[in-house]
Amino acid sequence: MPRHLLEVENLTVRLAAGKAARPILDGVSLHVAQGETVGLVGESGSGKSVTCRSVLGLFPEGAEADGSLRVDGNDVLTMPSARLRELRRRDVSMIFQDPRASINPIRRIGDYVTEGMRAGGVSRDLALKRAEELLESVGIRDSHAALRRYPHEFSGGMLQRVMIAGALAGEPRLLLADEPTTALDVTTQAEVISILTGLRTERAMAMLFVTHDLELAAAICDRIYVMYAGRIVEVQSAEGLFNRPRHPYTMGLLAATPRLDADRPRGVPGRPVSLADALTGCAFAARCAHARPRCGEQEPVPQVIDDAQVACLRAEELFDE
Amino acid sequence: MSEHALEVEGLRKSFGAHVAVDDVSFSLPPGGSLSIVGESGSGKTTTARMLVGLERPDAGRIRVGGRDRSDAARGKATRLARAREIQMVFQDPYLSLDPRVTVAACVEEPLRLHFALTTQERRARRDELLARVGLGEREADALPRRLSGGQRQRVAIARALATEPKVLILDEATAALDVSIQAQILDLLAEIRRDTGVGYLFVTHNLALVRHIADDILVLYQGRVVESGPTREVLAAPEHPYTRLLLHSVPRPGWDPARIAADRRALAAALGQPPLQHDPATRSVTK
């Protein structure tokens, strides 16, 4: 069996005592193969961003992590800090939702894009030359002049391209994209996504794409993990997820998403589980139209049905209906 | 003409050399629902801000319920009267509520400002408004930080409805919410419109959403209206290439982002303006 580039097994993350009644990640297992694009979909508080950050060894202060998380076979959780820095600089890069909050506003664009390369010992001239090429590859016009500009001189969409250029500087094999287009409008979103998918093909780069937008995830991902309250509730191919969602939460999300060619979106009753809520049984039971008393008592174990993996006690019955 | 809840004619606003809104006209019937769509920098938010008096138009007329409000308000009474007629719900419920004011006090504030009610009447009206948006006593006593994003947006809607406005402007009001919660808020807004006859002006870039919330649509591109009409018709048979681009941009299976990116550049070139790279104005084009 080929080893996956990213392998997460049974990752559980607990906040410092007294800060939360439940783990923020609860037994998360996922993998991303070389060159594969994998989606991580869920609503606020589902743990998708925490999962994404944990790949870089970034955890909330005082948090405790159990399980294993390996990049190319190396366990990130036990990695010494020097090696962890190298991992962040070279093997795995991350782009965040809000470029304006993630790029130092008082440093020039050139400094931002070359920072990782300079830290890795690349000479200033070479790093700047490389940065210019990178900016050009993400569609920044007049990239030479752009190196001297400041973040405030760019629109949101252009600054997101700058962040992508910075993330590519270390030639990463895995790109973590945490809602990279959520702050952008739809036409700009399409441009940024086309840059990401183009780079993925050119560089055979793997991508873990975090989003709350199922439609977007389905449009660009090979496989999708659906998260709810720190747990993975369903895994399927993008196509399978749309045609035959197996978990009631996935069905609810699909029905709630406004679409051009569908009926009026229907909301999922109730609200997402907060960190202050302790969980027994299935985390979605309180909002689920199909819940039975046992759903509130017994935690569902992921089971494989056809090509899908689903964590629902009633998955098989519901599918037969 | 007083048959319109809101009527806008030849609205224009520039920031320095950059024309953010250029000759925009539209009207909203009482109890109607109009959506202004466009990308960042299209002028949709600047238009909304002029309607509520947060920006002064350089030219053009704004009439609400037949009354002109194009000139700056003189005196407190005029300002209050104008504020009563149009209210606004902002995108980010985490920024638009005062973190130190309880939900109850937040909804009572406009009641105190706009109506001469006894304490008892005011409280009754407050509870009615909160019940209207699905919030109870427990939420009324809470500070915003105790509430979820969806609950906060319900508070913002209750506060906006307190003045019994003719028009409610919703500036990307559900964009920051989870989809399962967004759908709940859309249902609530539909109910409120049906029951109270308030008109809605939705400002959004999400065409998939517009299809479900707005009777009419106004498409802005670089500050100008490029297409308008009944939502159903415009979305079924868009005439302007920019409207088509917006429609194609909505992610769905089989979506081709590279083609959209190419179309967008071709469109910008054809319409004689390069795609925006650097901000000409400090605020209007950034998101």
Give the SSE map.
The complex is a heterodimer of chains A (321) and B (287).
Chain A: E1 6-14, E2 25-32, E3 37-41, H1 48-54, E4 64-71, E5 74-75, H2 81-91, E6 92-95, H3 99-102, H4 109-119, H5 124-137, H6 143-146, H7 156-168, E7 174-178, H8 186-203, E8 206-211, H9 214-220, E9 223-228, E10 231-237, H10 238-243, H11 248-256, E11 303-305, E12 308-310, H12 315-320
Parallel strand pairs in A: 3-8, 3-9, 6-7, 7-8
Antiparallel strand pairs in A: 1-2, 1-4, 4-5, 9-10, 10-12, 11-12
Chain B: E1 6-15, E2 18-28, E3 33-37, H1 44-51, E4 59-64, E5 67-68, H2 75-85, E6 86-89, H3 103-114, H4 119-132, H5 137-140, H6 149-161, E7 167-171, H7 179-196, E8 199-204, H8 207-213, E9 216-221, E10 224-230, H9 231-236, H10 241-249, H11 257-270
Parallel strand pairs in B: 3-8, 3-9, 6-7, 7-8
Antiparallel strand pairs in B: 1-2, 1-4, 4-5, 9-10
Approximately what portion of the residues of chain B adopt beta-strand conformation?
15-25%
**Biggest β-sheet: strands ordered side by side in the sheet of chain A:** 6-7-8-3-9-10-12-11
State the end-to-end CA separation of chain A. Answer: 36 Å
According to CATH, the homologous superfamily of chain A is P-loop containing nucleotide triphosphate hydrolases
- Give unreliable regions of chain B as ranges: 274-287
Q: What is the N-to-C succession of helices and strands of chain A?
A: EEEHEEHEHHHHHEHEHEEHHEEH
Going by helix content, strand content and strand pairing, the class of chain A is alpha/beta
Spatial extent as radius of gyration of chain B: 19 Å
Pairing-aware structural class of the strands and helices of chain B? alpha/beta
- Unreliable runs of chain A, pLDDT <50, ≥5 residues? none
The total beta strand count of chain B reads 10
The dominant shape of chain A is: globular
